[in-house]
Amino acid sequence: MRQKQSLLTEFNDNLALSDDFKHIVIEKIPLIDVRAPVEFEQGAFDSSINLPLMDDEERRQVGIEYKVRGNKAAVKLGHQLVNEIIREPRIHAWQQFIAEHPQAMLYCFRGGMRSKIAQQWLSDHGTDIVRLKGGYKAFRRFLIDYLDKLPGLIGEQGVRSVVIAGRTGSGKTQLLHKLDNQIDLEGLANHRGSAFGRHYSPQPSQIDFENNLSMAFMRLLEQQPNYLVVEDEGRNIGSVNLPKPLFDELKNDLRVVLDTPIEERIDITLQEYVIEAQQEYPDIESWQEFMHNAFSRIAKRLGGERQKRVLEQFDSAMKEQLSQGGVQAHQGWIATLLQEYYDPMYDYQMQKHQRKVSFVGTAEEVKAFLQTLA
């Protein structure tokens, strides 16, 4: 039976609860996050959608009321703000999502009043849904605890960690996507891990990155693989970073080097950093501005004369692209950067760290080597 506008919500304490967070991760259960948008933006889960009980302004007013007059007054104000007229379309949005995702569950920050109200309103409208016990906070704690235990779990399960290394443009990411048992760290970070690696769409927050990283490893280790594969990365991938114990664990086992001829590396870089990158941006001018900023970020390491030469090559390539429509002229500055900037830096790092290399080969040879670990 629907509540009247003047009444507070009456609760049925027998509505379903769950704290089986591992099941939610493994099965990728769709989640309704009823927190305000500002909370959702600070951190959420990869299978969640934000369908808030209160918008940011309503939440702000209720928060002030809670501080001034206490919980009872805040709950009353919340019901006044989210009255019958405002409430109905929000309930309808929840119902529509549940109709499309029958296994969906919902949560608020602590699994308290907001998710309890949303669950009750849905029940009053004839729709049942499970509420997360402890809400976002408990689920987040579960994922962080798993990340903390992950280095030990990898060892306990006898899973070999394989790092695919190689020079810039060698096709490590493309190879990774063709492999089983892989974790795409750059994909989770939404960043290609270099000065030119930023995508047009923003990176996730550190909280979201950690949540998604934990889920990705949990899903993979649930399959009990003999090995897992990641691309060679630093701890920092753009603005997010890997937990140090996990980073050290991943770097501490097998290292495979992908060996790709320079001509092929130039083509791969052209495809990924020019053709595909330009498609992400709303217009060519925006991409051109991003590239100039990226060149500026490496200017000190590149050196004045070489910086000037690379920029001239880039601007010439842009001029040709805009006048003739082709992108092949970009191969010039790409070749210069690869051979005169990235390759010496790679050689320096290899000499400095002296990491043991287990295998060197082409993409097909690396795939064959990994089969020996299965």
Defining traits:
alpha/beta; disordered N terminus; Rossmann fold; 2 domains; 374 residues
Question: Would you write up a description of this structure?
Answer:
This protein has 374 residues and is an alpha/beta fold. It has 17 helices and 11 strands. The chain has 2 domains: 17-133, Rhodanese-like domain (Oxidized Rhodanese, domain 1), CATH 3.40.250; 147-371, Rossmann fold (3-Layer(aba) Sandwich). Helix 12 (262-280) packs across helix 16. The chain has helices at 21-26, 37-42, 56-69, 71-81, 84-100, 113-124, 135-156, 172-177, 185-189, 206-222, 244-250, 262-280, 284-297, 299-302, 304-324, 331-353, 363-371, and strands at residues 17-18, 31-33, 48-50, 105-107, 130-132, 160-165, 227-231, 236-237, 240-241, 254-258, 359-361. It is globular and about 75 Å long. The protein has a 5-stranded parallel beta sheet with strand order 1-5-4-2-3. It has a 4-stranded parallel beta sheet with strand order 7-6-10-11. 57% of the residues lie in helices and 10% in strands.
Number of domains: 2
Our estimate of the beta-strand percent is 5-15%
Instruction: Assign the CATH class of the largest domain.
Output: Alpha Beta
- The computed structural class is alpha/beta
The helix tally amounts to 17
Main β-sheet, spatial strand arrangement: 1-5-4-2-3
- Under the CATH scheme, the architecture of the largest domain is 3-Layer(aba) Sandwich
Active site: 108
InterPro entries: AAA_SelU (IPR058840), P-loop_NTPase (IPR027417), Rhodanese-like_dom (IPR001763), Rhodanese-like_dom_sf (IPR036873), SelU (IPR017582)
Domain Rhodanese: 25-145
Subunit structure: Monomer.
